[in-house]
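User: Teach me something about this protein's shape.
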Amino acid sequence: MAEIRHIVWDWNGTLLDDTALTVRAAETALAAIGHPVKVSIEQWRAVATRPAQVTYEHLIGAPLSHEQWCVLADAWLDAYQSQLPSVALNVEAVAVLQEARRRGITQSIVSLQSPSALCPHVAALGIADLFTAVSGLGGDWSARPTKAETIRAQLSEVGVPAQQALMIGDMADDGREGSQVGLSVALVPTGDTSLERLVASGFPVAPSLQAAVASAFAG
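Assistant: First, the predicted structure itself:
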């Protein structure tokens, strides 16, 4: 790995310890379309993927109509946002973010969450000053930039070549988006994906946030 000067962080399931809330909201959303399915965190980690609709189709064993998906998505968002203020950071998050800054590594967040929710939440958790940029994508899937495009724009703003940046996330999708831009990748089993599935993705896997950031220092 080349010398790492910048870390791009995924938010949900990586820095934010929200997988339990995600699953509870998923159960609420499934009930809203007539599928009151109980889902354990282990079951969720075995099937969660992008696009999210595929995850729900796995859980109910059937395709979703456009109308069902719209109802489900709205129900999930309402259930998730209503409980979001009670969700804490990953127990390692503050320490590893501060250590990276101490070592002169800049950091940013790229999340699928809407910016109107993401930015105030990062600020409320007292860590906004640790990032050069906080980018929430949200909105219309057909119109919004991809994670890869957002990562590329962030690196351009801070003047760091992709080869000197590291993507840390909890899903194979994070690895694909980061590697598409040319970043090194470290995936962590802290959120929506089981360790076994992360290993099977072929991307480097670290057992914790601390270990993922340590890989940057080792470069």
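Now, about its shape. The chain has ten helices and five strands. The first strand starts at residue 6 and ends at 9. If you'd like, I can walk through any region in more detail.
User: That's plenty for now, thanks!
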